[in-house]
């Protein structure tokens, strides 16, 4: 039997971290773009139309590359992926952003690495070292400590929705990454979008506003971003990265997402980014190095 050399293994893991990093950078623009879009689009309509647009592109890709249909035992996991990242996370975050700013909601994304790691163990069969969990939990505690310090009573509905969104997303990430090992990274998100078509297309038509004349260009551009990049292109890199470098390990890169997201929120939406937000972000970024070192 041919043995895999340590160099090849290292190269694969490095590629996984690179792909994962690209995915995180793309996802970092999701919440600020969603925040802009929900100012003029209904959250439920936004969720459905972004998935419908991405699904159309996904079907086109599957047709162009003549991809085979998934096996019978792969449809169940694809439904979980669709419920988690195609419908669940976008809808819950869009609803949450009616109550909280994108800067505040982005902080909750710091919980995604822990959620992804837990589901990676439950669904992907991974077994990170104990010290890994210490760094992962520490990063999440920093994030939640900041959220509580801001006073959850100010917007309990928004914070609860963000927590539910994180759980849905973590499950969808882990399930999709596990499935991508056999189905392929970009194929997973494309087929998950196909699975969602019977739900998102009819609801897009039902929930569509009576007229679009008052929608501004920034709102349209935001819709385009969350449809093309957040719903499709980002997942191509993200699922490939998780499959190559490990769900729990590469998933810790999500701790960087608040940093990029806060910068975008400040630059594009002119939202105030406090010193506390910056300090928490720096703290959780520091946890990435520790988690990465002890993930395997």
Topology, element by element:
Layout: H1 6-28, H2 30-38, H3 43-64, H4 75-96, H5 102-108, H6 112-124, H7 130-150, H8 156-183, H9 185-207, H10 217-245, H11 247-251, H12 257-268, H13 275-293
Helix pairs in contact: 1-10, 1-12, 2-5, 2-10, 3-4, 3-9, 3-10, 4-8, 4-9, 5-12, 6-7, 6-8, 7-13, 8-9, 8-10, 9-10
Task: Tell me what you see in this structure.
Helix 1 packs parallel to helix 12, helix 6 crosses helix 8 and helix 9 runs antiparallel to helix 10. This protein has about 300 residues and is mainly α. The chain has one domain. It has 13 helices and no strands. Helices cover about 80% and strands about 0% of the residues. The longest helix is centred in the last third of the chain and has 29 residues.
Low-confidence stretches: 1-7
Give the amount of beta strand, in percent: under 5%
Average pLDDT score:
87
Tell me the total number of β-strands.
0
SSE pattern:
HHHHHHHHHHHHH
Helix content: over 70%
Structural class, by secondary structure, is mainly alpha
Shape: globular
What is the C-alpha radius of gyration, as a whole number of Å? 19 Å
Please sum up the structure shown.
It is found in: Membrane. The protein has one domain.
Descriptive labels:
Transporter; disordered N terminus; globular; mainly alpha; 296 residues; EmrE-like
């Amino acid at each position: 039997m041919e043995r895999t050399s340590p160099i090849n293994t290292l190269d694969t893991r490095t590629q996984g971290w690179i792909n994962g990093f690209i995915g995180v950078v793309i996802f970092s623009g999701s919440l600020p773009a969603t925040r802009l879009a929900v100012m003029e689009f209904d959250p439920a309509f936004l969720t459905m139309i972004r998935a419908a647009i991405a699904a159309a592109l996904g079907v086109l890709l599957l047709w162009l590359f003549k991809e085979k249909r998934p096996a019978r035992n792969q449809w169940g996991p694809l439904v979980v992926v669709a419920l988690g990242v195609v419908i669940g996370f976008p809808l819950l975050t869009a609803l949450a952003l009616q109550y909280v700013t994108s800067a505040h909601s982005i902080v909750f994304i710091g919980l995604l690495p822990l959620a992804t790691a837990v589901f990676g163990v439950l669904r992907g069969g991974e077994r990170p070292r104990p010290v890994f969990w210490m760094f992962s939990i520490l990063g999440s505690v920093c994030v939640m400590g900041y959220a509580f310090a801001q006073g959850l009573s100010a917007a309990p509905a928004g914070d609860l929705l963000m927590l539910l969104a994180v759980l849905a997303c973590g499950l969808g990430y882990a399930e999709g990454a596990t499935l991508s090992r056999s189905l392929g990274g970009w194929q997973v998100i494309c087929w998950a979008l196909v699975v969602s078509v019977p739900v998102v297309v009819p609801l897009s038509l039902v929930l569509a506003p009576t007229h679009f004349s008052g929608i501004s260009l920034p709102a349209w551009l935001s819709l385009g971003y969350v449809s093309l990049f957040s719903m499709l292109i980002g997942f191509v890199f993200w699922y490939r990265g998780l499959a190559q470098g490990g769900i729990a390990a590469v998933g810790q890169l999500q701790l960087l997402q608040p940093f990029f997201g806060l910068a975008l929120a400040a630059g594009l939406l002119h939202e105030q980014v406090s010193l506390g937000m910056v300090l928490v972000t720096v703290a959780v970024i520091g946890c990435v190095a520790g988690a990465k070192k002890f993930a395997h």
